[in-house]
Design brief:
The protein is mainly beta and about 170 residues long. The chain is about 10% helix and about 45% strand. The chain is built from 1 helix and 11 strands, in the order H-E-E-E-E-E-E-E-E-E-E-E. The protein has one helix at about 5-20; strands at about 45, 55-60, 65-75, 80-95, 100-110, 115-130, 135, 140-145, 150-155, 160, 170. The N and C termini lie far apart (about 40 Å). The model is unreliable at about 1-40 (pLDDT under 50).
Length: about 170
C-alpha cells in the first residue's frame, strides 16, 4: 500500500473514532504540504496533507481523497465520489454526490447534493436540500430538511424544521 493511502486510512480511522467518542491519535506524523492558493486566496483542489491556515477550501475534482490539517475557513465541495477529512471548518457546503466527510467541529452545514455521508462531532445549523443523505453527530444546533429520505442522527435533540418528505431525526 502506498504511503499516502496508508496515511489517509489512518486519519479516516482516527477521525471516525473522534466522531464516535473514541480517542484520537494526534501524534501521527506525515509531511505537511502547503496547498496552492487560488486568486481569491482559497485553496482549490489542495493535495492531501495541506495546511488550511484559516483559508477557504474548494474541492472541484471528482474521485478525491483529502486530509486537511489545521483550521479551515469555508469548505465547499462541488466534486463527487470522494472523501474529505477536515478537523475544523468555519462552514461546510457539499454540492456533490457520494461524498464522505469526517469533521470534528464545523459551523453551519449545507448539503445540496445526494447520497452523502457526513460524520460530524460538533455542528451548527445543518440544512439538507438533497436526497438520501446521512448525518451522524454528537451535537447539532438545528436541522432543516428540504429534500427527501434524509437521516440525521445526533446525540442531542436539535430544533427541526422539515419542508421535505420522508426525512428522519433519530
Amino acid at each position: 500500500m502506498s504511503r499516502s493511502v496508508t496515511v489517509l486510512a489512518l486519519h479516516v480511522v482516527a477521525a471516525s473514532l473522534v466522531a464516535c467518542g473514541g480517542p484520537a491519535d494526534d501524534a501521527t506524523s506525515r509531511p505537511r504540504e502547503e496547498a496552492p492558493p487560488t486568486a481569491s486566496g482559497a485553496l482549490r483542489d489542495p493535495a492531501s496533507g495541506a495546511m488550511c491556515a484559516g483559508q477557504d477550501v474548494q474541492v472541484t475534482r471528482d474521485d478525491f481523497h483529502l486530509v486537511l490539517d489545521g483550521a479551515c475557513g469555508e469548505v465547499v465541495v462541488t466534486a463527487s465520489r470522494g472523501a474529505i477529512n477536515v478537523d475544523h471548518a468555519a462552514s461546510l457546503r457539499v454540492d456533490g454526490d457520494h461524498v464522505t466527510v469526517l469533521n470534528r467541529r464545523v459551523g453551519d452545514v449545507v448539503v445540496t447534493g445526494s447520497d452523502n455521508t457526513l460524520n460530524l462531532t460538533e455542528a451548527g445549523n445543518v440544512q439538507i436540500g438533497g436526497d438520501r443523505n446521512t448525518v451522524l453527530a454528537r451535537n447539532v444546533a438545528s436541522v432543516e430538511f428540504e429534500g427527501a429520505s434524509n437521516t440525521v442522527n445526533p446525540s442531542n435533540t436539535p430544533d427541526v424544521h422539515d419542508d421535505g418528505h420522508d426525512n428522519r431525526v433519530l
